[in-house]
From TrEMBL:
PROSITE patterns: V_SNARE. Keywords: Coiled coil. Residues 37-79 form the V-SNARE coiled-coil homology domain. It comes from Magallana gigas. This is V-SNARE coiled-coil homology domain-containing protein.
Length: 79
């Protein structure tokens, strides 16, 4: 029961975030200039890697906050 609530909350949040990211990615793709050198490609990969790392940290933080929120709401239901 606890797991299903956590999954539902996270799934709703995830869907909204994915829609926002799709729009942002489309806008960035339209604005990009073609890459000219291998060095440019390496720089792009480094930037993407940094963003991915930051996103993983944010996901971990959000998961902790969601767990705390679910725990608090369960205590409110009980009490």
């Amino acid at each position: 029961m606890v797991k299903s609530r956590k999954i539902r909350v996270f799934t709703r949040f995830k869907k909204k975030k994915n829609e926002e990211e799709k729009v942002e990615i489309e806008m960035e793709t339209q604005q990009r200039q073609p890459l000219k050198t291998v060095e440019d490609l390496h720089q792009e990969v480094d930037e993407v890697t940094q963003v991915m790392h930051q996103n993983l940290v944010k996901i971990r933080d959000r998961e902790g906050k969601l767990d705390t929120l679910v725990d608090k709401s369960e205590r409110l239901e009980e009490g």
